[in-house]
Design brief:
Elements: E1 2-3, E2 13-16, E3 20-22, E4 28-29, H1 31-39, H2 43-53, H3 76-97, H4 109-130, H5 133-141, H6 144-161
Antiparallel strand pairs: 1-2, 2-3, 3-4
Helix pairs in contact: 1-2, 3-4, 4-6
Length: 162
């Protein structure tokens, strides 16, 4: 059950399966009817919109109706999660890519960074995902993720120069 999109002032229920039915106003129909009502289009325009949106065209000359998805900004927690996961992935890649082939080989700075920072990145992810409120607040207020990012960026520059 979802809320009926045709009522701003009330909240009747709506059944959606192969057809929709609004128990509030009695609106009923198929996907073309629903699209026409939602976007205030004719039935032909609704069919063309659906065909265009899903990359289908019966005639090849249907107009394009653009609907942009609304992107909500990431929360601070989501931003930190994205950053830390990208660091963890990069460090894991460096650990494999730059592993020494023999004991006499000089250690590549990216390999050293992967060994040095990987546990810290995982620890910060653990705090982010499972820490208490105080630990999370310390993480968000601190500069540790920024400093870690700067150190990793310096290693990326070394990698790019090689």
């Amino acid at each position: 059950m979802i809320c009926c999109p045709f009522h701003a002032d009330r909240n009747p229920s709506m059944k959606v399966d192969f057809r929709f039915h609004c128990f509030g106003c009695g609106a009923d129909g198929d996907v073309i009817d629903l699209t026409a009502k939602l976007f205030q289009l004719s039935l032909l325009q609704a069919a063309e919109k659906l065909a265009t949106d899903f990359g289908l065209s019966a005639t090849g000359n249907s107009p394009r109706f653009l609907c942009k998805p609304v992107e909500k900004p990431l929360s601070l927690k989501e931003q930190f999660y994205k950053i830390l996961c990208s660091y963890r992935s990069l460090l894991a890649n460096w650990r494999i890519t730059y592993v020494p082939q023999n004991p006499e080989e000089t250690l590549h700075p990216c390999f050293v960074a992967s060994m040095h920072y990987a546990d810290r990145v995982q620890y910060l992810l653990d705090i982010l995902l499972h820490g208490n409120v105080y630990e999370k607040q310390q993480l968000f207020n601190g500069k540790e993720v920024t400093a870690l990012g700067e150190a990793i960026e310096r290693c990326k520059e070394i990698e790019a120069a090689a």
